[in-house]
Write a structure and sequence with these properties.
The protein contains eight helices and six strands; from the N terminus they run αβαββααββαβααα. The protein has about 270 residues and is an alpha/beta fold. The structure holds zinc ion.
């Protein structure tokens, strides 16, 4: 028995030393929230938010679900290129598939958007807070790799809501993305592509285009090195896009680190 314990401790130690060799992200962020790791089975819970004056049409909802599925199909294909097993299971957020709010704020890509959407929607589903929802849902769904997709019947710049250790678990442990129907100027939007891009943020991917937290210089370099990476650009023709070496490394899919990777770190993913 003692010997077994010793062996167990020995292997645990080995795992601690070598098992997490591919750590592109600071540990307070990576694998910190409900969107654990982009591998194996990821449970997606989705819901639709609207205002009374501007409700979703059934046909629009159907289109959004179809876009979600093609986003996931694309991610699974990309994972396959990196020999990573990936599956998605989808279900509506129970009791709260459609939620009406007094108003829905517009995302403007400023980095100051409201980040408590997931808490709000799980509360509508009857949970006390994010932490309780995550605990109960992970038992019920036999999975602790869960993300929430909130579709807003409104225009805006979609965004991801990530958890980091030290943040309030009650508010933020459940991670998810807010997806608008159109861009903030009312223009049509490649929804599948946006959904994939935002899901990747939950698992650690960095923006490679210019944002409030990313520089023009890095965008220019990314255009040279990773011209088709989905974190650099979106496209209606999703088959022209890919998850390139840097993004794959950030996800833990690519274990071959290159010296330049770290240089691309944007301000909103500071170590
Ligand atoms: Zn982004």
């Amino acid at each position: 028995m003692k010997r077994l314990t010793f062996l167990f401790n020995f292997f645990t130690l080995l795992l601690l030393i070598f098992g997490f060799g591919v750590v592109a992200q600071p540990n307070d962020r990576w694998k910190a929230g409900s969107a654990l790791l982009l591998t194996d089975t990821v449970q997606t819970l989705y819901c639709f938010v609207e205002t009374e004056a501007n409700p979703w049409l059934e046909s629009e909802k159907t289109n959004m679900i179809a876009s979600l599925e093609s986003a996931q199909h694309w991610l699974v294909q990309q994972a396959g290129h990196w020999n990573v097993p990936l599956f998605f299971k989808n279900s509506p957020l129970e009791n709260a598939e459609t939620i009406s709010f007094d108003s829905i704020t517009t995302g403007t890509g400023s980095g100051r958007e409201r980040v408590d959407w997931i808490k709000k929607v799980v509360q509508n589903a009857g949970y006390r807070n994010s932490r309780q929802a995550f605990r109960k849902l992970s038992v019920k769904l036999h999975n602790d790799n869960i993300l929430v997709v909130v579709f807003a019947h409104s225009d805006g710049i979609s965004y991801a809501m990530r958890y980091a250790k030290g943040m309030s678990k009650k508010k933020y442990i459940m991670e998810g993305i807010l997806v608008y129907q159109r861009y903030d100027n009312g223009a049509e939007m490649p929804v599948s592509c946006i959904v994939s891009h935002e899901i990747l943020h939950l698992y650690g991917a960095w923006d490679l285009y210019r944002t409030y937290a990313q520089t023009l210089e890095k965008q220019a370099k990314a255009r040279e090195l990773y011209p088709n990476d989905i974190m650099l650009r979106v496209d209606y023709a999703m088959e022209t896009l890919k998850i390139d070496r840097l993004t794959a490394w950030l996800l833990g899919w690519n274990s071959t680190e290159e010296e330049i990777f770290e240089w691309f770190r944007p301000d909103d993913y500071r170590k």
